[in-house]
């Protein structure tokens, strides 16, 4: 199977699907994708704070766009058919009085730009339900803990990119949009908020660039 579960098999294997919401009672590791429920190999985060594996979320967006394009095509076909039917209206003839006349309404197809915008705006984040576009995705970089025997460890550990505090689900984390680096909320409060500079690359930050990482929950 590929890196993410298909909608036909995901439910049987305990994975999230595009249609199946994730329950709020159990928490997966902070570096797990909200779609595959597996650790991300190429993590990206949305502006809403949800983490996805890049391949999985791009496939999801493509699928949603394909379905939106299909619905739009069907709608336009129905609209064109409806507009081809004559519609009655009444006019007053000076000799014969009020008589019905018939006209055909004109179907005006949407422009290529309008179609593109409709399809683009049809995709929403699977977790937040808010509009989501590919350009909204931010690459995330988890700093790995250096361990001489890490190749023998059963699980890779990560740390704050600034303070080097080891990360786990009990540590509140944020992603800095300007670099994609993951730091602890404590680091933001005690260091970054003072001058609003990303300490990993020296770029200026604003409040919107500090994105809290939301833990993903599962059934």
UniProtKB/TrEMBL annotation:
GO terms for cellular component: nucleus. Keywords: Nucleus. It is found in: Nucleus. It comes from the Eukaryota. GO terms for molecular function: ubiquitin protein ligase activity. Signal peptide: none annotated. Belongs to the NOSIP family. PANTHER family: ENOS INTERACTING PROTEIN, NITRIC OXIDE SYNTHASE-INTERACTING PROTEIN. This is Nitric oxide synthase-interacting protein. It comes from Trichonephila clavata (Joro spider).
């Amino acid at each position: 199977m590929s890196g993410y579960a298909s909608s036909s098999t995901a439910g049987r294997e305990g994975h999230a699907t595009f249609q199946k919401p994730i329950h709020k009672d159990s928490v997966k590791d902070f570096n797990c994708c909200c779609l595959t429920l597996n650790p991300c190999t190429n993590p990206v985060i949305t502006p809403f704070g949800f983490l996805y594996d890049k391949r999985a979320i791009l496939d999801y967006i493509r699928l949603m766009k394909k379905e939106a394009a299909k619905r739009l095509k069907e709608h336009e076909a129905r609209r064109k058919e409806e507009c081809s039917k004559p519609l009655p209206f009444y006019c007053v003839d000076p000799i014969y009085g009020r008589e019905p006349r018939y006209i055909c309404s004109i179907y005006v197809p949407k422009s290529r730009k309008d179609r593109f915008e409709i399809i683009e705006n049809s995709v929403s984040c699977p977790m937040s339900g808010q509009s989501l576009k590919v350009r909204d995705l931010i690459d995330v970089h988890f700093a790995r803990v250096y361990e001489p025997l890490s190749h023998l460890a059963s699980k890779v550990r990560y740390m704050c990119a600034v303070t080097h505090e080891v990360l786990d689900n009990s540590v509140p984390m944020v992603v800095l949009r300007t670099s994609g680096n993951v730091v602890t909320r404590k680091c933001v409060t005690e260091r970054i908020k003072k001058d609003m500079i990303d300490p990993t690359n020296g770029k200026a930050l604003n409040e919107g660039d500090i994105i809290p990482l939301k833990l993903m929950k599962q059934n």
